[in-house]
Structure formats: structure tokens, C-alpha cells
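User: What would this chain look like folded?
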Amino acid sequence: MGAFLAYILVVAAALCGYANSQLVPAIMTFGDSTVDVGNNDYVQTVFKANHPPYGQDFSNREPTGRFCNGKLATDITAENLGFTTYAPAYLSPQASGKNLLVGANFASAGSGYDDNTAALSHVIPLSQQLQYFKEYQSKLASVAGSEKASSIIKDALYLIGAGNSDFLQNYYINPFLNKHYTVDQYSSYLISIFSNFVKSLYGLGARRIGATSLAPTGCLPLARTIFGQHERGCVSSFNTDAQQFNKKINAAASQLQNQLPGLKIVIFDIFKPIYDLVANPKKYGFVEATKGCCGTGTVETTFVLCNQKSGTCSNASEYVFWDSVHPSQAANQVLADSLIISGISLIG
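Assistant: Here's the prediction, encoded as C-alpha cells.
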């Protein structure tokens, strides 16, 4: 698989005509905890991953603000694209000077398409992430000059990872929403926000945009534990909701590509690879797919229960999930490998 991916990237690089090793000049990331690399370390919220055992398998063996034992799928994707450093969390001290040339990460754990989702967790809403991106553009121009900055903005890869929190941390537990709006209505509302967000990015110069689908939320250990009741396996209704949302976001992306000249947009399907990992863990070298590595692995996430005293499994690489919600680094590697081919169209 590694050799095959390397071959694809070499071909892609030749097609794109990039002179350096990076297939795109920069990566900009927006969304939730699946892509946050530490912005929540600088926000007054309980949704933080700045403590052990988070980061135990990262290069420096220290917490990085990532909700994982090591690398996120977006980190691995950056490496596959030729980056030797990761775009910094925008609120971190590292987001300055020449570090801005490789992009920035604006994501915030607990956020979603719906700004009310972020408000419940006191984290950075997507609308504010967009404002930070506007700030970033000004800072980039100061570092690189207006002409080079414009080129970076135009050719950069824009990644959006959101939506799961809108359902798990808002709709399903919020009676104001679930008693007054059907899943279909709320799903359509989120899609309208997604479409407007893409249009805003496009208006600010973005031309290569990749967004993730919803995961099979009913298969997450947290969902199984809290919402599964007597149902064996995944919570089927949650997975059905996710699949319906995914159909809508794919349709919206197609419409946006037809509407906006020069836009390349891809919806990365993470539902199928994660579902396959849960259904057939041994096929991918995993031994546990029903609970996470941290603590009991059923409800632990953030400092509340996933901490140094809660204990971890002996080998995180054998677990599909790191905590009750987030994939392990090993699972993120599988995700990144499965998404690289569809991502080629964004850089070709």
C-alpha cells in the first residue's frame, strides 16, 4: 500500500508540475476535534487534549492538543503531500512569521457547522474560524508579500472536518432541537451552512476544498454506551442519519462545483472506511473496535475521564478508537490511505 501511494503521489506531482516536494503550497483546516491540532489549548473550555495520555505516541511523546494518541488523518495527509512540518494551530504562538507559509489550522474541538454547537462547549464556532482565516490572510501578506500570499491562498488545500459534533453533542441531546425539528430538517440546515461556508471561502480565494462526510456515528463507543440501550452493535438509527446527511453534502458539493467557476471540491467519505474498521477490525490488524484505548474506552474523552490516572491499553495500535469518540493514530493511517486517491483530483 505504501509503495502504491508513493507511486500515485509521484504521478500527481508530475501532472501538477510542482517544482518542490509539496504538492500544494499550504493547508488550511477548519472544523472540530477530528482536525483540531491545539486551538482549544487557548480557549476557556473543558474540551482540551493538552494533557496525558493524549499525544503519548506523537513524535515528542507529549500532548499536542490533538484528540489522539498521535497523528490525525490530516497530519498524515500533509505528510503524503510532501510537508515536513504541520500547519500550526492559529491561536498558538507558533502561528507567526514563516510558519504561516505552510498554512494554518483554525479548527476547534466541540465545534460544528451550527454555531450553537460550539456555544454549548464554549469553543470556536465555524463563523469565527472564518474570521480568523481573514486575519491570517493579512498576516500572510505581511510575511510573504501580497503577490506570493495571493498565490498561496489560491493554490492551497482547504480541509473541512465537521458535522459529527452537531449531532452527537447537540441535536441528539438537545430537546429544543430534536422535539421541534426532524433529523432531515436539521440535516438540511447544516448543509445550508456548509454551502455558505464554502461560498465564503471561495470569495476569499479558495479553489481546492475537501470536506469529510459524517462518520458512522452510531458505531462510536460513546454512542453505543449512552444511546445504544439494548441494541447490539452500532446504533443503526444514528448511522442512517449520517448516511442521509452524506447524500446531501455530496449533492451540495456537486451543485457548488457547477455554480462556482474554477472550484474543485471533494467530499471525502469517512463513513465507509470507519464502518469497515469497526465491522472487520482483524482485516486491518486491529483487535478492538467496540471501545477506545483510554480508560474503559466507553465514555472517556477530554480531561474528565481520559487522563493519566484513567489508564490506557497496552498497545494503542491494536485499537480502532483512542478514546470513546476519536480514532487512534493507527486508524487515522487507514483513513488517510483510503482518502488519498480521491484527494488527487484536488491537486491535479
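Residues 236-259 form the longest helix (24 residues). If you want, I can go into more detail on any region.
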